[in-house]
Amino acid sequence: MTKNEIADVLTEIGVLLELTGENPFKVRAYQSGARALEGLEEAELGRLIQEGQLGTIKGFGEALVQKITELHTTGKLGYFEKLKASVEPGLVEMAQIPGLGPKKIIVLKSKLGVTSIAALTQACREGKVAALEGFGEKTQEKILAGIRNREAYGRRHMWWDAWEVSEPIVAGLRALPQVRRAEAAGSLRRGMETVGDLDFLVAATDVEPVIAWFVARPGVKEVTARGETKTSVRFESGLQADLRIVPEEQFVFALHHFTGSKDHNVQMRQRALARGLSMSEWGLVPAEGEGTAKAKAEAKQSVTVKDEAELFAKLGLHFIVPELREGLGEIEAAEKGGLPRLVELADLRGAFHNHTTASDGRNTLAEMTAAAEALGWEYLGIADHSKSSFQANGLSEERVTKQIEEIHALNAAKKFKTHVFTGTECDILPDGKLDFDDALLAQLDYVVVSVHNVFTQDEATMTKRIIRAIEHPRTTMLGHLTGRLLLRREGYKVDAAKVIDAAVAHDVVIELNASPWRLDMDWRLWRKAAERGLRCAINPDAHETAGLAHVRAGVNAARKGWLTKEQVVNTQNLAAIKRWLAGRRAKK
User: ∠482-436-515 over CA atoms, to 5°?
Assistant: First the structure.
């Protein structure tokens, strides 16, 4: 196991111990151990274990050393498995409800006998939770709202999770000798931020071996349907997947149809009818009684196409990439040849919003830099949390100064090809002021400003708060505009149009936070915002090395927002970024 995977186990042990009412000091030992583990270099952990020196690290007692060593060498921990088996699964599920921590769960279990979400729901509806000391009506309503959101969100999955499931399946399907063509379709292919289920499309004639391979995939919990042309399975995560098998001559038409969206498909069918054609998942054929005489004459024969580009061309359109197929003007633009060349993953040269173990990240500065170098990035921006984000181990002024020195030393050592920029994710305080003074902010290469608390302000107050931060002369970019967490938490209320206007007026970049849990600012806002001059930074908000790759999800969202390479600042090379940041600092 890697150090972060081991830290995850230690953290979960801490939660499970809390749910059993264990001694707080023991709970804290596992929480502190997880944190200390994240502060080590991966290679250093291996060396310490090999040399029997892990116990020399502060916070690692004999019990933790034994458990970390066992996890590192075997990937398993008997103590952890026994502990999990001893805690009711319903209690762990309850801990996923916002605002319901282990202490409250213990009270609910001891006072009301509640050990499941169903029982908790019933207790809330009967007013029993509100009657408990330390709870009250507001807490009860918040719990019910969390349960309702959990049920609604449970029907969808984040794009990143669905993509990780789909990628090996598509690759495996294409490798089968019976398969001529295979693609993932649906909202996954369109790059939607969340996905209801997976759609796989295959061109094949010998179908049974393909179906047998599909239903035997790792993680498949249930085969919900099995037929000659369509088979459905449900994975352990709850994600459902449909496999459709069609003749090769129908593949392109079916791929377009099952990619969607519904609005796009309706508009395409209407366009086909106007040309005397009927368009469906089975093909493009003459439509009786439709279209002009000329169109009818041209549509005497069934249409054959080798790919989607040809399909669009048959209807007088330039190719429309899947991300734009939302029925939002893409067909009109494709008719006029006005579709932009959208930003691509390969265009990115670096990113600015990333964290290290200095705040709440899980990898060190050196590890994050090495990971950025492995991605081929020319630069990496470090923006750890500021002091008011105490829950995220936010940096004090002294710690920021020390980190600036560390980054300068890292760059001077030339150990990595990737240049590191000094930054901060500076809290926007409730009144709109920034968490650090001007003198400290002036020492940084750039400043990301974000809201991390007091989400309950009304829309006017929140909007005024954010705009005041944007107007600060040291602000470079605004982080996650609405603070939303997909499938977990709605964003706070804010007038996005006014914030965008302020950002354009003050030459402040708004990030497209590429974390799969955020994807904020929403793609639906970007097209008009960019037309008004707003510039974007696709930032992963990475809290560990693997998180840097999340820029892929951000690129999806940027493409859905019609963004081009020129509208995304971190497509510029290192020299250009250095000039840009130096120019901004010189103006202050």
Answer: 30
